[in-house]
Every structure is written in C-alpha cells, then in structure tokens.
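In response to the reviewer comment on reproducibility (Comment 2.3), we provide here a single inverse folding case reported in full, input and output, so that an independent group could reproduce the run without further information from us. The structure tokens appear first.
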C-alpha cells in the first residue's frame, strides 16, 4: 500500500505538547556600550515536543507504525493543538480569504463572517490543504464589520500566496510538520507499558 503524506495522527490522546515559535533575528551588540543593531529575517516556524501517555502494546504499535511510516524526516504529518483547538472568538459565518494575498504577508483580510462575529488573540487558523496546510495564530482581537469583514495580524507570516475566497479553518486548525530527527525511539517496560516521545518542526 502506498503511503500518502501528510499522515494523520493515531487516535490516542497526546499527553503533553511543548510548542515553540521561532523567529530568525540577527543582532549585533557593542561590547563597550551595549547598543544593539537588530535585523529581522523571513525565517519563522513552529516546533513541537510531543509526549504520549504510557500505553499498552495495542495502542503503542499504531504510534510506532506512524513514526516508521514517516521514514525519518522524509514524510510529513498534520499536527494541531489538541487542548486549545476551539477558538475563543465566535468566528460565526463561513470565513474566506478576502482578496489575493502575497506570500510573506503579516496580515490577512477575511470576509464571509457574520456581522459582529469575533476573533480573539491566540485563536488558531489554517490555510491550504495536504502538504501545504499552514498553521497560524491570530494576533488580533476584533469584530467583523457589517459586511462580515475583518483583517487579522497573524504569526507566522503567510508561507504561500493566497487566492481570493481561499478557505479558512478556525476550529481544530492544523499545520504540516515533519520529525526533527531521523531517529525514532520508544521505551518498553517489563510490564509491557510503552513510552513514546518525539520532536517535530514545521515542514516548509
């Protein structure tokens, strides 16, 4: 059977996820005055450390197979915030991208919302599909105007250009990730309890 990426996660709940947001910033600092020169570069990505609960073999083997199917850093999978996937804002309506957007844009305009629909800081949203599924956070708290429009500052910046009326996912939004290492490790105790942990980076 052909393996198709990105993979979906096995159904067992994740015990703990540590999420990191990384920006590439260059900084030079004078050793005499401590004055600083700062340069912002385009590099931004999500990183995550994932820990699964102790599992018996029946559940663990699904995760082991998942990790092996990824073939180290070659394959990709979809990852989301399993704790806070529901937005705090209402996001009422059917939000779509409002107008064409260039890659690396730091804000996105939406329409198709119900007038008065709200978006909160920290709400997850995603664009794209398949291996181009991109995960973002809203940096904006706002309310859609009478035409159902709102503009959000987001992190990270857009990876690719977005077309007018592109779909927006605001509940259980996902992004495409790959393993941070080609090595996969799992622990097996005498009582046949498995321990599995792995790290991932956004697939760009």
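Designed residues, in position order:
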């Amino acid at each position: 059977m052909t393996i198709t990426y990105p993979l979906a996660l096995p159904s067992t709940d994740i015990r703990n996820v540590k999420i990191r947001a990384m920006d590439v910033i260059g900084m030079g600092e004078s050793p005499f005055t401590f004055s600083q020169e700062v340069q912002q570069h385009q590099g931004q990505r999500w990183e995550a450390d994932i820990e699964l609960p102790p599992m018996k073999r029946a559940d663990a083997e699904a995760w082991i197979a998942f990790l092996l199917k990824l073939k180290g850093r070659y394959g990709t999978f979809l990852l989301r915030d399993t704790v806070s996937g529901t937005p705090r804002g209402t996001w009422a309506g059917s939000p779509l991208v409002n107008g064409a957007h260039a890659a690396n844009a730091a804000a996105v305009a939406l329409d198709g919302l119900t007038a008065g629909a709200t978006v909160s800081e920290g709400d997850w949203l995603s664009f794209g599909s398949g291996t181009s599924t991109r995960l973002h956070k809203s940096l904006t708290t706002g309310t859609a105007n009478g035409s159902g429009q709102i503009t959000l500052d987001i992190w990270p910046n857009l990876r690719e250009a977005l077309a007018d009326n592109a779909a927006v996912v605001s509940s259980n939004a996902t992004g495409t990730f790959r393993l941070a290492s080609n090595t996969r490790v799992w622990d097996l105790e005498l009582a046949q309890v498995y321990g599995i942990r792995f790290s991932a980076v956004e697939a760009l």
